[in-house]
Amino acid sequence: MKKTNNFSESDFLDIFDKEIKNRNAPMLTLDESFYDSVVTNIPKNELKRLADLCIKKSWLKKAAFGGSKYANLQLTSAGIEEMKSEKKQQERTIVKKFSDYIENHKGIVRLFLFIVAIITLLIQIF
């Protein structure tokens, strides 16, 4: 099975949200009209797989009983937050990314600075 590497759950949520806004509807069903209106080269099976992942992560929920597994789906507040967080992450600058890297790897940075201090001390002694 060939997987698409550049299409993630957050991309699916973004498409889902745009489609809800275009239709001015509180919920959507993943049916032929959805696939026809969404312009993408992603196969239907991949979209369903991503929908399943979003449902599993509680980013989408069934808003009404009845119908298929993909009927009457609605974005949850967690799904909206995920979309915002992903957009925010993509907008980060290189300096912010570097700062986050250092923050996440404090132990390595401290070890490196400790080694530099020891080397400097040894150079001054000898």
Discrete helix count:
6
Taking the alpha carbons of the first and last residues, their distance comes to 63 Å
For the sheet with most strands, the description reads:
2 strands, antiparallel
Name of the level-1 CATH class of the largest domain: Mainly Alpha
The neighbouring-strand order within the major sheet is 1-2
Order of helices and strands: HHHEEHHH
Helicity level: 55-70%
Query: In terms of per-residue confidence, which ranges show pLDDT below 50 for 5 or more consecutive residues?
Result: none
Counting DSSP E segments of at least 2 residues, the number of strands comes to 2
Kindly identify the CATH topology of the largest domain.
Arc Repressor Mutant, subunit A
Rg for CA atoms: 23 Å
The helix-and-strand class reads mainly alpha
Average pLDDT, to the nearest integer? 83
Apparent shape: rod-shaped
Return the domain count.
Answer: 2
- Report the portion of residues in β strands: under 5%
Architecture of the largest domain in CATH?
Orthogonal Bundle
Describe the structure.
With 126 residues, the chain is mainly alpha-helical. It folds into 2 domains: 9-90, Orthogonal Bundle (Arc Repressor Mutant, subunit A); 94-125. It is 63% helix and 5% strand. α1 packs across α4. The longest helix is centred in the C-terminal third of the chain and has 20 residues, at 106-125.
